[in-house]
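Z., the sequence and structure:
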Amino acid sequence: MGNNRQVGLFDRFRKRSKGQPTADELSSAAVDHLAAFIETRRGVEAFIELPTTVTKATLLLIAHDGEWTRRSVDSVEWARTFAAQYNLPTYDAGVVGYPQRMRDYNARQRAAQRRAQPPAA
């Protein structure tokens, strides 16, 4: 049987290195990452970011202390179903915005990075 894969207009120009994961493997890795984040943090909430003309839909998970992770997902519906499986409070990021604890976490991370850098000579 022939290959049923549809060829995109720019596929021939895309570079694919040996050992690079396929789209299915990336999805599996993303699911594993999101599940691990939920299972190892407390107070996790889900923020769904709608797709744009440039990006796919994304699922942003934010823990109680503001630590966060974001992954591209197949669809908004997939993100809602995934969050429901883990009983996560779920919000539309475009409507409610991002919580202050996430901005505070980012500020703490930037400050820690500045302290870790050696002074310029």
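The two ends are 65 Å apart (CA to CA). The longest helix spans residues 23-40.

Let me know what you think.
H.
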